[in-house]
Amino acid sequence: MIDSLGDVLPFAAGVALSPIPIIGVIWCSVPTVHG
Amino acid sequence: MTGPAFGVAWVVGLSTITVAFVATMSAAEGEGDLTDPANAATTGIGWAKLLVGGAFLALAVHKWRTSPRDGEEPILPAWMDNTSDISGSKAAGFGLLLSAANPKNLALVGAAAAAIVEQTGGATPAVEAIVVFVALGSLSVLIPIAASIVAPQRATVALEDLRHFMTRNNTAIMMTVLVILGLKMVGDGLKIF
């Protein structure tokens, strides 16, 4: 379990650090972004 | 409710493809020990890592060559120009597409699934690893949603700043992520030799 977590961490970070989904979710969450 | 719809769809999409990849690779693992370098499945996964790692590095070079020059506006996906009337179902659709139909995510989930199956053999600990992977991979999407619900006034300014930062530095962030993960995957893939 611990070993596999260490191995998947970089890939989870790669998924999380994608700018387009972050921009997209802010676009959907903040009313002022899309007026 | 568009933010939560996006978030729920993102988590569902990411969970679905992660479970599918782990299940598929666990079935392959059933045919032999993935820690054995002589195993055909191990060699296949090693070659897949080399190919995906090489593709990430090539994509990083492509991003660098096509990045906006000084003074140029970054180009965002066209759907972001048409969100003035965004509905919950549309937001959910975007969340699902960006998590489960995104080639970069598919490659990253495939690599993570290979690591999970190699370490756990697809048994019960794999479920825990999948949950942790999906939770960590969803943090950057879930935190803005939580912030916009808990403190909408204060979060608006911070999220707007974050969005501008991500828009301006989209290419640089993606290049950095692709280079680091590309090198890691090529390094992991070379272990088959």
Most strands sheet of chain B: none
Number of strands of chain A: 0
Query: Which two chains share the most extensive interface?
Result: A-B, 32 and 61 residues
Q: Which percent range describes the beta-strand content of chain B?
A: under 5%
Helix count of chain B? 7
The computed structural class of chain A is mainly alpha
Q: Separation of termini of chain A?
A: 46 Å
The assigned structural class of chain B equals mainly alpha
Main sheet of chain A, how many strands, which sense, barrel?
A: none
Please, what is the oligomeric state? heterodimer
Termini of chain B, distance in Å? 51 Å
Arithmetic mean pLDDT of chain B: 86
Query: Unreliable segments of chain A (pLDDT under 50, ≥5 consecutive)?
Result: none
**Silhouette of chain B:** globular
Number of helices of chain A: 2
* Radius of gyration of chain A, taken over Cα atoms and rounded to an integer in Å: 15 Å
- Whole-number average pLDDT of chain A? 81
**Relative strand content of chain A:** under 5%
Counting DSSP E segments of at least 2 residues, the number of strands of chain B comes to 0
Structural notes for this entry:
The complex is a heterodimer of chains A (35) and B (193). Chain A is mainly α and 35 residues long. Chain A has 2 helices and no strands. Chain A has helices spanning 2-16, 19-29. Chain A is rod-shaped, with a radius of gyration of 15 Å. In chain A, 57% of the residues are buried. The mean pLDDT of chain A is 81. Chain B has 193 residues and is mainly α. Helix content of chain B is 77%, strand content 0%. Chain B has helices spanning 2-29, 40-65, 88-100, 103-120, 124-150, 152-168, 170-189. Chain B is globular, with a radius of gyration of 19 Å. The termini of chain B are far apart. The model of chain B has no long low-confidence stretch (mean pLDDT 86). At the A-B interface, helix 1 and helix 2 of A face helix 1, helix 3, helix 4, helix 5 and helix 6 of B.
